[in-house]
Write a structure and sequence with these properties.
5-stranded antiparallel beta sheet; 3-stranded mixed beta sheet; 1 helix; 39% strand
Length: 142
């Protein structure tokens, strides 16, 4: 019985991956934080879904100049400074990551590591944006 449940879970996951790679790109939930001088914006994109059998939640932070419309950009990964494989929250139940600007050209990103108590978690980080003008400072917390 457990083997059947495990096989079903793996098949559901594989079907989800295959469907995501062939389906029309889904629209993420978007939240943005503008720099104090209003020249850059940090855009948090969150993709979540999958239901009870194979839920997923992925996030990415992009740093883009205010004048760029992401809807017209085909390769948004060039602007990506952070991506996480699973969504998380801090001990006080506030959402992770927390994004704040420290001046006009320094972005602070604080991520939760609570999920790592049960499983490993992978993050992709860049310490500068695509233009090289904005530095990114990361910290991890519970």
């Amino acid at each position: 019985m457990l083997a059947f449940i495990g096989a079903f879970q793996v098949a559901s996951w594989l079907a989800h991956i295959a469907f995501r790679n062939t389906a029309v790109a889904e629209v993420p939930d978007v939240r943005e934080v503008r720099s104090p001088n209003d020249q850059y914006r940090a855009v948090l994109q969150t993709w979540a879904g999958g239901g009870g059998l194979s839920p997923y939640c992925q996030q990415a932070i992009l740093v883009v100049p205010v004048g760029i419309n992401l809807a017209n950009v085909h390769d948004t990964q060039s602007y990506e400074v952070y991506s996480g494989s699973e969504c998380d929250s801090f001990a006080a139940h506030s959402p992770s990551p927390e994004i704040t600007w420290d001046g006009d050209r320094t972005l602070k990103v604080r991520v939760s590591i609570n999920r790592t108590a049960m499983t490993e978690q992978t993050f992709r980080l860049r310490k500068r944006d695509a233009s090289g003008a904005v530095s990114i400072k990361f910290s991890a917390d519970e």
